[in-house]
Amino acid sequence: MTGSPGHLHFTQSLEPLQGGGLGSSAISLHEHMRQVGLRSLLCSTYGHAAQHRVDGTREYARRRPDFFYYAPGMRREARGLVHDVDVLHGHGLYVAPNLIFGREARRQRKALVYHVHGMFEPYILQRSRWKKRLVHLLFEDRNIESVRFWRALTAKEADQIRGTGARQPIAVVPNGLDVAQFAPVGDPGRPIDTPLIEGLCKGARHRLLFLGRIHPKKGLALLIPAWSRLALGHPDWELVIAGPDEGGHLAEVRSLAASLGLADRVMFTGMVQGEAKIRLLHSADLFVLPSFSEGFPMSVLEALACGVPVVATRESNVGEVLSSGGGWECDAEAESLTRMLGQALQAGESERRDRGRAGRRRVEQHYGWPAVVAELERACRAYC
Questions:
Q1: ω before 65 within 30° of 0 (cis)?
Q2: Is 238 exposed, middle or buried, given 0-12, 13-18 or 19+ CB atoms closer than 10 A?
Q3: How far separated are the first and last CA of the chain, in Å rounded?
Q4: Is position 143 within any domain?
Q5: What predicted TM-score, i.e. pTM, was given to this entire model?
Q6: How many CB atoms lie within 10 A of CB 264?
Q7: Do both 29 and 70 map to the same domain?
Q8: Within a 10 A sphere around the Cβ of 116, how many other Cβ atoms?
Q9: In the predicted structure, residue 5 carries a pLDDT above the cut 80
Q10: Helix, strand and coil in the chain, % to nearest 5
Q11: Tag placement on the chain: N or C end, fewer CB within 10 Å?
């Protein structure tokens, strides 16, 4: 790998809760760059414990306040790390790793690429606006001026980047997926152990699955009322909500479900990973993402890789993925979600199976990691 350009990826965290989709996307891109022979290093911070999820990563203990993701060790080592690479990839904005590596990229005149990951979605832009203005003044404006090119996950995100006034080139390169990693695992009838339910079994009911962070932007406050309107007419279905709690939102969602009389029709598993996640996805008959805002959610690609059709909001930005018939799209509002989810529940098993197969083919053909890495490397050579 010594003859290839060196790439350094930096992001706020690789922890499932603190890093979320940013961390997962950065890990996967870094890992698959290395698999095709590119030199790649991934730098991040951690709170309680380093994750050690893949080779070629450096994780640094961060200081409080946690939301800034500042790690003294990262600052100390940044100069040497940047000296040994050619291109720096920033995954996300507004945090200390961007301050540290953006400054070093300018000092050493190294190419800086920004991967937005949904940060310019209107829902996200409205949050903590005064903090973002301050961060722009402190360092992010200078980083943005020095960016060689932007990576957008979708054409819509490219428009959002251009809408900020960015003048640099934009490469539309989606997230990728290794479909082979989502093959069925073990006996499908075997119970699945999860943090909140020991031995989760698939009974006679069909399964509607949400899998993601339990966070207000994910739209569970839309999903639960929609499910309350549909559950009585679909006694042969159950709703499973899987994912880590963020900021205590799980208690709010549980309370909402109980107030609507859904205590026995909704199951909460907590965070699932590895084999348990793959088995849970394969146990689903339908996947739902009712999000108010996404960059390009990996959960939808993962569900389709398992042959599970998807109901997702347009705000989830998966229209291109579902364009071959892998599911149903709706707006991020209660009536639209209820109507489209009702259509999906009423569809026959053969239709859902056909849609799942169509979605899997789409993922295999257009979102495999070798094609994604090759496209990003072409953009790096063209603009860096």
A1: yes
A2: buried
A3: 19
A4: yes
A5: 0.84
A6: 9
A7: yes
A8: 25
A9: no
A10: 45, 20, 35
A11: N
53/11 Cα distance (integer angstroms): 14
**Which CATH number does the domain housing residue 324 bear?**
3.40.50.2000
Do residue 45 and residue 142 come from a single domain? Answer: yes
Give the up-direction half-sphere exposure of residue 242: CA atoms within 13 A in the CB hemisphere: 27
Tell me the C-alpha distance between 378 and 363, whole Å.
Answer: 21
- Residues 129, 76 share a domain: yes
Residues 13 and 99 in one domain: yes
- Say which residue the tokens 């990691």 belong to: 369
Helix (H) or strand (E) segment spanning residue 132: helix 129-135
CA nearest to 245, candidates 225, 218, 207? 218
Quote the pLDDT of residue 109.
97
**Structural domain that includes position 352:** 179-366
Report yes or no on 206 lying in a domain: yes
Q: Are 383 and 149 in contact (CB under 8 A)?
A: yes
Same domain? For 164 and 52 the reply is: yes
Q: Which residues contact 65 (CB under 8 A, 6 or more apart)?
A: none
Q: Is residue 1 part of a domain?
A: no
Same domain for 49 and 10: yes
Residue 4 has pLDDT above 70, yes or no: no
Q: Dihedral angle at the C-alpha atoms of 129, 133, 139, 143, nearest 10 degrees? A: 80
Classify residue 77: in a domain, yes or no: yes
Q: What is the mean pLDDT of residues 245-270?
A: 95
pLDDT digits (tens, 9 = 90+) for 180-193: 999 998 888 899 99
Alpha-carbon separation of residue 250 from 166, 192, 280 (angstroms):
38, 21, 19
β strands within the chain, DSSP E: 6-13, 39-46, 57-61, 87-91, 111-115, 147-152, 170-172, 206-211, 237-242, 266-270, 286-289, 310-313, 327-330
**Do residues 377 and 356 both lie within one domain?**
no
Same domain, 149 and 63: yes
Number of domains observed in the structure of the chain: 2
Helices (H), 70-127: 72-83, 96-107, 122-125
Phi and psi at residue 164, to the nearest 5°? -80, -5
Residue 2's pLDDT band (boundaries 50, 70, 90)?
very low
